Each structure stands twice: as C-alpha cells, then as structure tokens.
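>> received
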Amino acid sequence: YQSANPLITSTKSMEFDGVDNYMEVQDSSDLQLAGQEASFTFWTRLDSLSGGDQKFLAKALTTGVDLSGYQIRTDNDDLIFQFNNGSWRTVTSNSFFTDLNWVNVTVTIDSSYLVKMYKNGIEVFSGNIGYTIPANTGELLFGARTPSNPVNFLNGEMTEVGIYNRALTSLE
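>> returned
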C-alpha cells in the first residue's frame, strides 16, 4: 500500500508574469523521484498560447552536459514532459491548451515508463518515454527552470499543485 498523500502540495495561487517571477523549493530526496513512478497535477491558466518555452515546474541540478532532472513545460499550446539523463527524453501532447481558461493538468509515469497526460481528468495522451527519471539534487522551481540563473518564465497562473511518488490512476 502506498500513501495517497502527495510529496508536495500547495493550494495557494501562484501568479507568474513571464518575465522574472518564480517559486523555488529546496531539494528534498522525496522530490528527486529517481527510478520511481511519479505523478504531477495542477490547475493552470496561461496568459497566451503563443508564449514559447515556459516552465510549469522544473527540478534540475545544473545546465549543459551535466543536466539531470525533470520538467513539465508548454511550448505555445503543447504540453511537454521531459527529463535529461545525459540526453533529453520527451513526450508531447500537441495542442493541449486550446484557450486561456483554467485547465487541470495531470502527468503520470509508471514503472513501464508509460507517460499519460490528462486534461480536466480525461486522458489525452499516452506514450512510452523509454527510461526512468534520473537522480538529481537541484531545487524544484515553479514558473521557471535553472535555479542558478532562472529562464523560461511562465506567463500565467498555477494552483492546487500535487507531486506524488506513484502513478495516479485515471479515477484519482
């Protein structure tokens, strides 16, 4: 039996201006998720569907060749889950965002590396990422990536964030 409790949760609304706002959570071994199943869920509202590369959340050690970590981001209207273990592993739900209204986003990865993406509780994407999340000791950022020099700022809002060390089921 695994606890239904999230590793991290926040019901506070986080507003990001797309320029320099982000929130940082110090590293915790619970949030490294190395080799584990995982789920990420949050509500978001974007200010634009043409904002380019924007991070919802990103946890990484550093940049460049030593990069290891995971991130959920948008590139215009696509939803992207990826991590780096020496090379980028990426799955994309194209045209995930269709308007500027609030939407619930859930991304899961199970023990067979199957990633599922849900929009408002409905599965809209399923694909194998071929590897497990790598170990990393970097900070977890909401609304940007790269703790030492934040970039790719989110232009929108997030609330009701949950991160789990298991793959949530479609009923959850």
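>> Helices lie at 29-32.
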